[in-house]
């Protein structure tokens, strides 16, 4: 009995200390460094940072004003848009666009506009595109 117990311990140690047989099939070029996802501006996306043209620095857009999709019956959305403000300008980060959009207003109380996009300060904010409400938020 003692010999069997001793034999199983020796065999267990032998296999636990054996070198790994499976080879790593990825090459050095294929390996991805976790946390090494800096964009062209040096913003680290995995930490939630995105480049802001308006602020000229890396920001976390989710710290700005969140705009949710306008209510439509039967549709559920898991994405949102965000806006940050600087003076009479607003930078809009839409879930449907890769680059942000800069909106401008003429004076205090006016809406921010860029082409067919209009951000209106009303019960929070309302974002219209071509006259149709697409986002609302506080």
Give a topology summary.
Layout: H1 2-16, E1 50-52, E2 57-59, E3 65-69, E4 81-86, E5 89-93, E6 101-104, E7 112-114, E8 117-120, E9 125-129, E10 132-137
Note down, in words, how this protein is organized.
The protein is mainly beta. It has a domain at 64-137. 11% of the residues lie in helices and 32% in strands. The chain contains 1 helix and 10 strands; from the N terminus they run αββββββββββ. The chain has one helix at 2-16, and strands spanning 50-52, 57-59, 65-69, 81-86, 89-93, 101-104, 112-114, 117-120, 125-129, 132-137. The strands form 2 sheets. The chain has an 8-stranded antiparallel sheet, with no helix packed on it. Strands 1-2 form a two-stranded antiparallel ribbon.
Distinctive features:
single chain; 138 residues; mainly beta; eight-stranded antiparallel beta sheet; 10 strands; 11% helix; 32% strand; elongated
Quick summary:
This protein has about 140 residues and is mainly beta. It has one helix spanning about 1-15; strands at about 50, 55-60, 65-70, 80-85, 90-95, 100-105, 110-115, 115-120, 125-130, 130-135. The longest helix has 15 residues, at about 1-15.
> Are there runs of 5+ residues with pLDDT below 50, and where?
none
Summarize the amount of helix as a percent range.
Answer: 10-25%
Q: Topology as H/E string? A: HEEEEEEEEEE
Secondary-structure content class = mainly beta
- Average pLDDT across residues? 81
Strand fraction band? 25-35%
Q: Given the C-alpha coordinates, what overall shape results?
A: elongated
Strand segment count:
10
Strand order of the largest sheet: 6-5-4-3-10-9-8-7
Number of helices: 1
User: How much is the radius of gyration in Å?
Assistant: 27 Å
Could you tell me how far the N terminus lies from the C terminus, measured between alpha carbons in angstroms?
Answer: 75 Å
Largest sheet: 8 strands, antiparallel
